[in-house]
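Researcher: Sit down with what I've pasted below and flag anything odd:
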Amino acid sequence: MNESSAAAGTLCVGIMAHVDAGKTTLSEQILHHTGRIRTTGRVDHGDAFMDNEALEQQRGITIFQEQASLTLGGNTKIVLIDTPGHEDFAAQRRRALLVMDLCVLVVSCADRIQSGTKTIYREVRDAGIPILFFLNKTDQAGTDPQRTLDALRTALGADILSADLSSEPAREEIALRDEILLEEHLAGNVPERRYLDVLRRLAGTGEVSLSLSGSALQDHGIRELIHLIPEIYTGRATKGAGEPFSGLVYRIRRQSGQRLAYIRVYSGYLTARTEVETISGRQKIHALYEAQGNRLTGIERCSAGEVAVVTGIAAVPGEWIGCRATAAPVQEPMMVQALTPKAPLTKQKLLSDLRELEEEEPELCVTPFGDAVQVGLVGKTQQEVLVQLLRSRYGDSVDAGEPRVQYRETIQKPVTGIGHYEPLRHYAEVWLRLFPGNPGSGIVFESRVAPNSLDENWQRLIRTHIYEREHPGVLTGSPITDLRIVLIGGRAHLKHTEGGDFREATYRAIRQGLMQAENVLLEPFVTFELTMLQEAAPKVTGDLIGMNAQLDAPEYLSDTEVIQRGTCRLSAIYAYPERFASVTHGYGRFTMHYSGHFPCRDQAEVVASSCYVPTEDPGNPCSSVFCSHGAGFPVAWDHVREWAHLAKDMEEYENAAD
């Protein structure tokens, strides 16, 4: 169990699954059995309690995570979170993992083990969250829960025990994990409680996963699932009411004009009309609610381990608030798309509306882009939903441009960047040593300035300015990444330096360093998994070879089916699903997942086609500003060192930083 374990008596239970496994139907049955809803709905019928958004009802899929509170086992409070299964909306699922104590992973017995199931399993295991498999659709002809369980064990490499205590083989498997229980089991007449005790020890720590089978549609196995959860899973105790408050924001939504923040409390407690610390400063909680789908009920207090919906704060998903206020991790889209407003819609109005949506979906990564607004994308379904959401919520009509790869930039060798900002009555100089970082490391900062040469508060401010935004590279203007930035020197003026001066100097130091560097363009790569009939494999393999994909050995599922896995540039394979559907006549499955940014094979062509001129980017100057005779004047990037005030003092520190 990870740090996000619940307080005793409260569990956040996430329902997760690959598309069409029956996840939302299972959620409906749980809510019905616990008295939260009178009748069960279905997502494909547009009447599911958890799928209450108009877009979900129109499309018949879960798009937004939703939750409800209920009680199991008499006194165990459950916060049930239903998550999207479609990979285009995986970010919603991952945000739910931030506060989850148990994942109920739904697997269809009517299908083979899906690659989406493997992806979810890895994400949940990496988060340190116990997993309970619900083997669904056992009412369909030809299904065999034991065969599905065996396939899961093989496909996932997972240690999974059946929790069906009415089964003698299941009781025997449990007994084999505990010497004392095994002796009792062989002697016979062991009470069910003894098997539950061993399961609680093994499953609660994540040492093994458990499984139950049934049919959510036919209401088979639901009572057993509801009984098992409070019997086996309990969260670790969190810090109580006497401790300072801390909580994690995991969802933002808007309803009836109100901005709602979903928060899990991890220490202390939360009440209305109190102030909490955020990365933006202290903010006041206006009201607290408990969520039942889209229905909110006012509450007075939220204690450690519990979940509340609050109004009044401007935090974003992934942000810690309270005594451990910490910013949310930065999102990195693989693809971007320009949305151009249709008259009378203005760019300013579209940008404002998209900024509001970005608070709910940080992965949109909204940025102005000429006469349009650029947003991050995962896939075609997400693109269609975004355009519909803009129209239905704001009345915005847009033209969606062709999706483009989101490149990144880094450097190949160390270089020193110098930024100086000295218009009249302002002063700051910053020296940064830029190093290539490890792939996937992002931006890493450290300070190695000479003792007593620059006050700590200025060093902290420089660090803030490095992390507060994405800095564009000088090849295509794409964001830089995988850099270690070392502060080796700086200077302030006792009278004239202000905080904004170091922002200007820091930005210019990064740009000036990049202008001297051997820059490398990075493009996103994906891993893919294609399942098809063997007769389609030659054409598909030929297509993949034409994309320069790296292919693994094919895996033959049967006499008719084959799986082809591999790695490829996203730019080459992004549009392939339509071709794949045509080649396989609709009988294939295509999934792909981001694997990292790596050097672009066509760097010269991509840079030339971008038409980006770094010295003509007014928002990101490469030059510095110096002062002479009471007036500031610009100095081009390639002459900054000649004018820099610390030039004579910095040579030894440049070498020391290496």
Q: What stands out?
A: The domain at 10-232 is CATH 3.40.50.300 (Rossmann fold). Residues 499-516 form the longest helix (18 residues). The chain has five domains: 10-232, 246-322, 335-404, 409-520+612-657, 523-599.
